[in-house]
Amino acid sequence: MKKVLLFVVFVASVLPMAFAQDPVAGIRQRYAAVKAHIEDMMQEDGWPPSYYEANVVENLPGTGPHKENIKMFYDVDEAKAAEVEEGEDFDVDLHVHPPVWLHFVMVSYNFAARNFYEEYLLDKNGKPEFIYGLIPYDDDDMDREFRFYFDDGKLIRCVVKRRATGTEEPFAEEYSGTKLLETYEDYYNGYVSKLPHFLRLFEAVDKVTYY
Prior knowledge:
Blueprint: H1 2-21, H2 23-41, E1 51-60, E2 64-76, H3 78-86, H4 92-96, E3 100-111, E4 114-122, E5 128-135, E6 142-151, E7 154-164, E8 172-177, H5 185-208
Antiparallel strand pairs: 1-2, 2-3, 3-4, 4-5, 5-6, 6-7, 7-8
Helix pairs in contact: 1-2
């Protein structure tokens, strides 16, 4: 029993150092934790849900009905919340709804029959840590998954997987590396360019909610 306890303590002490040496491993761990929390939150008997959601429904020329759903999950800014608690002028609104920051975004939308899906994991400063994107049947009749990993907002790894459109086969790796190949630049730039829009949308919703 003593050896088991010592092993647990050793693993607990080594894992943070391992993640510090391998940022991608740390990002994957944080991503898994966020997804697990969201999954629990969405259960009927799970953790009470807390997130912002925006829906867009419109008819686009050439592609017809378009639906877009954006879910924005947030965390409490503990430092700012503590300032609110200790402040001399007690603000009821801030006490009921403490300062929060955008942590995770889930986006689904369509153009004609093509259904897209994206995820964005952000840090407290609004910088990306991880971006996932699913592109259905691209120009070469391939579905593709994109995974971009960041360290302090800078790209450190790109992973691309693909499978033939219309199949249910597992995605196979097409590319994995620390450099962004020219082939994937447009996809990457498209995802990154959306981040400021999500941050502005989150801030706008956060300012006009009712309590």
